Backbone:
């Protein structure tokens, strides 16, 4: 089967490439941003006309933490809308057998009841710090739903929780909290800094899924799921930012202090997914947070040389 992985160099895309290799899929096509800018509809159509993939994993997107979302909202809504609409429409026009679109748990309502069920989408106001990104992602999900309803396309959507793993973004201005903490503690240990400063209060609760577990879940969904509603993908367990910091401090082996900059935003108070739909379909996560962080820190240290 010919499989196109959009965004194959990213955190999720590279994990999908590892999963396909591990499962002996051989006919894989990829294009870098330089080779194919997915915001360009003419280029995307020409690519689908030439390659005619059977399956598509849509893991390309403009992604970032609170700071990046706050600073570049226009780019987040434009890039993510164009990428989703260009690929999903081209997939329909070129009779792609199955397509998987990726949303993100940050697109659920800010004050959604916890844990968050798939049905809670579009039932309340969004988290202002990533509204632009959320609107773009919601429209991608709805596009898959309505192309299935009108044209019978087998397009499905997964809604992953916060992800972490190798090939993550460790830039302190645009990364998510977990890779930022690994870098901060590593540099503090190397530099013998007396303390590490963290954003906010440490109270928010977050769920984290090892990205290779996500890739495994996406293959499970491509093989066994076909329906309009998106599917939450997570562990169903959360941890406070403070306890996450203590876990990473221990894995890194840093002995200094933690300090909090309460002037910085906390974001959503809690964001835990209800993963019963996925669990009932027979899939459960495999990698514990401690084990996952240990693997990522080992990879990060190697990369620092
Ligand atoms: N990271 C998370 O915690 C998380 C959580 C839930 C859901 N997700 C979802 O997972 C998906 C992938 O996220 P990620 O974390 O893997 O992001 P990432 O690491 O930033 O990777 C994004 C990928 O998209 C490519 N890309 C971006 N703009 C492009 C364009 N205009 N044309 C072609 N390629 C383009 C990037 O190519 P370059 O490397 O060349 O820029 C990269 O390969 C997104 O849909 C996101 O919503 C992520």
Residues:
């Amino acid at each position: 089967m010919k499989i196109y992985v959009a965004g194959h160099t990213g955190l999720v895309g590279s994990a999908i490439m590892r999963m396909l290799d591990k499962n002996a899929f051989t006919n894989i096509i990829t294009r870098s941003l330089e080779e194919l800018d997915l915001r360009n509809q003419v280029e995307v159509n020409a690519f689908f006309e030439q390659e005619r993939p059977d399956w598509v994993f849509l893991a390309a997107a403009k992604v970032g933490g609170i700071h990046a979302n706050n600073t570049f909202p226009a780019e987040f809504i434009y890039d993510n809308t164009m990428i989703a609409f260009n690929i999903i429409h081209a997939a329909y026009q070129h009779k792609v057998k199955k397509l998987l679109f990726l949303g993100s748990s940050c697109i659920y309502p800010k004050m959604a009841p916890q844990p968050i069920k798939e049905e809670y989408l579009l039932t309340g106001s969004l988290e202002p710090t990533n509204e632009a990104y959320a609107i773009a992602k919601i429209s991608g999900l709805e596009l898959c739903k309505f192309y299935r309803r009108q044209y019978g396309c087998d397009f499905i959507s997964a809604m992953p929780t916060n992800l972490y793993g190798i090939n993550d973004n460790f830039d302190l201005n645009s990364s998510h909290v977990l890779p930022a903490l690994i870098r901060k503690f590593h540099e503090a240990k190397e530099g013998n800094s007396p303390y590490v400063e963290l954003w906010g209060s440490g109270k928010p609760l977050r769920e984290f899924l090892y990205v290779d577990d996500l890739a495994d879940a996406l293959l499970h969904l491509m093989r066994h799921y076909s329906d309009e509603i998106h599917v939450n993908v997570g562990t169903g367990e959360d941890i406070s930012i403070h306890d996450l910091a203590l876990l990473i401090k221990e894995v890194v082996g840093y002995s200094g202090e933690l300090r909090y900059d309460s002037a910085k935003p906390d974001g959503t108070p809690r964001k835990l997914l209800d993963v019963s739909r996925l669990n009932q379909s027979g899939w459960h996560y495999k990698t514990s947070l401690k084990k996952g962080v240990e693997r990522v820190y080992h990879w990060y240290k190697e990369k620092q040389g």
Observations:
- Residues 3-167+208-235+275-286 form a domain with the Rossmann fold fold (CATH 3.40.50.720).
